[in-house]
Design brief:
By secondary structure, the chain is mainly alpha-helical. The protein has helices at about 15-25, 30-45, 50-55.
């Protein structure tokens, strides 16, 4: 019996890795809720805010929401 330890926790990833996941989601195996968590975590950390706005992701998930 094996345990699934591949739970996505955006808070445990560095901002650069989160940005990579957000910027190229088609090439990764993350679902919509994981993508939303990554965007939210970046917004909370206030990292890549300008870039998120440019690609239209920040309006969907505002910081602190």
């Amino acid at each position: 019996m094996t345990m699934n330890t591949d739970t996505f926790k955006a808070s445990e990833l560095c901002s650069r890795k989160l940005w990579q996941l957000v910027n190229t989601p088609a090439e990764t195996n993350i679902n919509d809720s994981e993508l939303a968590a990554a965007i939210s975590e970046l917004a909370t950390r206030r990292h890549y805010l300008e870039e998120l706005q440019e690609i239209g992701k920040l309006g969907e998930h505002s910081p602190g929401a």
